[in-house]
Amino acid sequence: LKQLTADVSARYDSYKNDVPGAAGLEVKRQTMKWVLPFHPGTVKAFKEAGHWTAEDQTHNDGLIKRQQVLAAAWTAYTKTNPPDDKFADGWTAARRAALAQATSSDAFD
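^ thats the sequence. predicted structure below, dont judge the formating
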């Protein structure tokens, strides 16, 4: 993914007018404060291109920790074998509780 990200960034001028929606691929238009963490390969490519800050890294690290909290909550919740008709509501509650606990314990700091 690092190489793909680097290639898309480096060759942007050669394809920007040929592909509908390509404007969104320009590095300077990227939202580094995204809601999902960036892949390590993408981070490496952005760093090498000079488009990654310490603030971006801190935000991304927090998102990775959040994903870890959610993954652990999902594993724990699905082990309870909730009934299908209660699954969504139960997961919403379990997710909310896990995030609240992580936030109160400073897991994201």
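The helical segments are 2-10, 12-15, 40-48, 54-78, 87-104.
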